[in-house]
Amino acid sequence: MEEALNTLFPQCPEDLYGELANYFSKFSKAPVISKLVGRKILGGVGQPTLEVELYCTVKNYEKRICSTVMATHSQIPENALPETIEADEKERNDSVHTAVEWVNESLSPMLRHLDPTDQCQADKMLGEYFANKVEEKEEIEKLEEKAKAEEEAAKVTPTSTPKQKKGGKPGKAVSVEAQSIPPAEPAESVLRGSLAIGATSLAIAKAGAIICHVPLYLYTALLKHNQESPKEITLPLPMVTLLNCEKNSPSKLKLVKEIMLIPPVELSLKQGIDRVLDIQKEMTRLLESRSKMSGSQANSKKGKAQKAPPPASKRISHLGCLTAGYDNLEQLLLLMQRACNNIGLELGTDVYLAINCAAHELMDYDKGKYEILTGTFKSPDEMAAMYVDIINNFPFIIALIDPLRKEDRDQWSSICCALGSKCYLIAEDAAMQISKLKNDQNINIAMCSGVVLKYINQTKVSDLVELTGILDGQRHITILGSPDGESSDESLVDLAVGLGARFLKLGGLSRGERVAKYNRLLAIEEELAANGALREAKLEFIDFAEESQPEQLPNVPPAPEQVVALKTSASVQTPNVGQRAAIGISRKLAPVTSRKAPDSCMQSQTNKLRTFILQCYHCFK
Description:
The structure is a single chain. The protein is α/β, with parallel strands linked by helices. Helix content is about 45%, strand content about 15%. It has 18 helices and 17 strands. The protein has helices at about 1-10, 15-25, 80-110, 120-155, 195-210, 215-225, 270-300, 330-340, 380-395, 410-420, 435-440, 460-475, 490-500, 510-530, 545-550, 560-570, 575-595, 600-620, and strands at about 30-40, 50-60, 60-70, 235, 235-245, 260, 320-325, 350-355, 365, 370-375, 375-380, 395-400, 425, 450-455, 475-480, 505, 535. Helix 9 packs parallel to helix 10 (about 410-420) and helix 17 (about 575-595) packs antiparallel against helix 18 (about 600-620). It is globular, with a radius of gyration of 29 Å. GO terms for molecular function: magnesium ion binding; phosphopyruvate hydratase activity. InterPro entries: Enolase, Enolase-like_C_sf, Enolase-like_N, Enolase_C, Enolase_N. Its EC number is 4.2.1.11. Keywords: Glycolysis, Lyase.
């Protein structure tokens, strides 16, 4: 006490007791988690979701530190049947109810007295808890299947096998065309209650940032860079959704789900958002005039006054953008060009476009083709050729999201090699779940430029940190995207900034839950600029064709023992890694073969090694 008074005496503080409290606070114990409170609330689109509040014991008092709200996410496509949508809503409601029970009855006592700044330990405990729940579910399913099998076996009575009639017609042959495409992979089952894991992990991260007196984006960056504070931070470029072309609308165009605007990197984020708003206003004006014109034409034909369709500005989708339908892609893109030209902007220079195709919603499995327009179908190979023509004719499109299904891996490779040097080919639905991506260190997904990550279900903050590090090492760009059923929680923006995401996909500039995230991004830009820690973003494409094309190697027949060894190694190595390694080594060997007058021994060794590399490449390919 004497030391404290002597320290504060020269300062003559106005609030002596406040300064004494601050002085002694450094001797107090670190805050620890006291309890978690989970409750069911409504999200941005009126769907049930989970909120988790975190309380800590701070200086002997229990204090509410923060809360987080999980966004709802559904794998049901837009054109799903009504009974499918109803079943999904019921499952979501039950999942939220289970998640609330997990938080209040299990996770709260499990995490009590834990240091909220120890994110790794918290996520480890959450992961173990979730793994135990998965095992419990599997055991219950096995017991149910066993009981069902025993019940069916008890009902079965021995019957004579009917004889096959002579001259009977053979079974109906399956058409080759129906099997010409890979079947759709089953959607990953979501464990009921998994929302509790993601919400709790994020709440602990937010509490750790508050206790450390740093913003969440910097706290996330410290987690990714092993507690080393980055000197500069690059903001992700926003993909602002301008139009939502509903695939179940009466219009013909099915290929496009979202049209997004990407401001140029030369502009600040604030300038880019202002430019997008100007384009949005002009597009609204053009759509309203088109709606009035179509309404007047319909009235003149029928000779009777009828109510015109609602103006586009009043039809705002759940993505926070305008909703409109078109007959073909050229009509839509020309309207975009007209809107930009009307306000003195040029597509490809002053602003860029990105298209979300959501190709998994286009496939007609009876025909084995994609329905891009009403009644117009294309095979996967034709789709790849079509995208090449689109990008060549409209070079201002610099990103395609889900241009193909994830099962069409060969076509993904084709468009990446053809367009990767001038367009981002991004997998959203075509990428696997975060849990599978993290477990498979080789990122076993279709060839693409980048992956859209969403913070949903059992995803933990540590998962995102680890996965973005893997993606960076594989030269994939990271895009953080908000789910369809967004919430008012702004944490996604901080995660994207801290993890170093290249793009941020938040939807449109309408609806409060989405605008709040854009406002948070603007606030982070101001803070970084004031501290001199803002780095300018860059648009860098990946030339897949150059990477995947090896140098010409001599046509030397391989030795039999080499072929056997190659087959053995191919079974344990990953194609992507092996192919890149083979290409990299072959390029390094090129200068060696160009030396003058090599001796015969070295020439022989070089030929053997080059033959081995050639066989590796073909085997992996």
